[in-house]
From TrEMBL:
The chain crosses the membrane at residues 22-41. It comes from Pycnoporus cinnabarinus (Cinnabar-red polypore). Gene3D superfamilies: Nucleotide-binding domain of ferredoxin-NADP reductase (FNR) module, Translation factors. This is ferric-chelate reductase (NADPH). Residues 311-323 have a biased composition (Polar residues). It is a multi-pass membrane protein.
Length: 397
């Protein structure tokens, strides 16, 4: 009973969110304790045969996961040169955001918005410790191609480093990881050293909503929740360009604390918009919520902020400039918090057919979206859109 009680307490969402590693370790230890205790207590009464199959199920689960880990990361167990090519690069984008990039393991395929478990032996306290993170990039089959797009002049303005950074979102595994305590804090410290990190990948996991039948797609993200909506954004554009989606309007709403955070994804957005099909209406609205953040008409300070963060943290590298991104008419940067009820009602009023709203952000953002989309069922009978809301959990599960 004590093991059950301890497991119940640490499984509460507030505790799990604040001390995920504690939950992880306690979860593993208490589950084994419960199984052994249950077997010894029941075996004396002749009912042990009801419990020991649980060990088989648990062991089978561990064996399958180990097999998947070896299957997707088998290059690590081969020649040293091949193993080094699989190492991940870690960059500190800001004091609270890390970008991790690694080459896609052979046979690894995923759909936009799915997650992967990452085990980093040099970062984790335990070799077998792994944590789930949303994949911010898309599989290579969602490539927008290199043909002509609506804004070729902006794409031509990208320098080689920025182009390579953007291209990684189509042919590599990219993760935007919010720095907290424990595991992610140690990962941020590893990023300051500028050294590659060994990463073992297991996945993909999670649900990826099918948006091909939606006339209007609205993506709402807060902070690091952009990992989910960015991948979905790229997936929708790819499907439209391939003629597999009926989407004619795509709205991307992102709330961030500082204007410099635009640089996290500026290169990939620039390339995506430059290659986007011309038969889709794209609107990207970025809201900067911090009152002390200065929004500039030019983008020099955004570059300076990124450069100062990198140099102060010891990365020694500068990356893309958001300047070419802000040249697009589809981009709108606003000071203040997004009025989600107003924004979503505008989308509902302007949409006929099927409207999909996908949210990945804080609980307050998700709740605002739910309340805004509570429209009468009779509205559809009167010509209003059919609304579908998908809320992706934000933070640790």
């Amino acid at each position: 009973m004590s093991a059950f009680t301890l497991l119940l307490v640490v499984s509460l969402r507030p505790i799990r969110a604040r001390a995920y590693e504690l939950f992880y370790y306690v979860h593993v230890l208490t589950v084994l304790t419960i199984l052994f205790a249950a077997y010894f207590h029941t075996d004396n009464q002749g009912f042990g045969f009801y419990v020991w199959p649980c060990f088989i199920i648990w062991g089978l689960d561990r064996a399958i996961r180990l097999g998947r880990l070896i299957y997707y990361n088998h290059l690590y167990f081969g020649f040293a040169s091949a193993a080094r090519r699989m190492d991940a690069s870690v960059e500190l984008l800001s004091p609270h955001m890390v970008r991790l990039r690694l080459k896609r393991p052979p046979h690894f395929r995923w759909t936009p918005g799915q997650t992967a478990f990452l085990a980093m032996p040099t970062v984790s306290r335990l070799i077998v410790e792994s944590h789930p993170f949303t994949i911010a990039s898309v599989d290579s089959r969602y490539s927008l191609g290199d043909g002509p797009g609506a804004h070729d002049e902006e794409r031509d303005a990208l320098d080689k480093d920025v182009e390579n950074e953007a291209t990684s979102f189509w042919n590599e595994l990219v993760f935007l990881i919010h720095v907290r305590e424990g595991y992610t804090r140690r990962l941020a410290k590893a990023a300051t050293k500028g050294e590659p990190v060994k990463v073992l990948v297991d996945g993909p996991y999670g649900f990826s909503p099918n948006l091909d039948c939606d006339d209007t797609v609205v993506l709402v993200a807060g902070g690091s929740g952009v990992s989910y909506t960015l991948a979905t954004f790229l997936g929708v554009l790819s499907q439209v360009k391939a003629g597999k989606s009926r989407c004619c309007k795509l709205t991307f709403i992102w709330a961030i604390r500082e204007a410099a955070h635009i640089g996290w994804i500026s290169s990939v957005l620039t390339k995506a918009l430059s290659l986007a099909p011309t038969d889709i209406d794209i609107s990207i609205r970025i809201f900067v919520t911090a009152r002390n953040t200065q929004l500039l008409n030019d983008t020099t300070s955004l570059d300076d902020d990124k450069e100062s963060v990198r140099s102060s943290e010891g990365t020694g590298r500068t990356k893309s400039s958001p300047s070419s991104l802000l040249n697009f008419t589809a981009i709108q940067v606003v000071q203040g918090r997004p009025d989600l009820p107003v924004l979503l009602r505008e989308e509902v009023e302007a949409t006929t057919g099927r409207l999909s709203v996908t949210v990945c952000g804080s609980s307050s953002i998700a709740q605002s979206c739910r309340e805004a989309l509570r429209i009468p069922m009779t509205a559809t009978l009167k010509g209003g859109p059919s609304v579908v809301l998908h809320v992706e959990s934000f933070g640790y599960a």
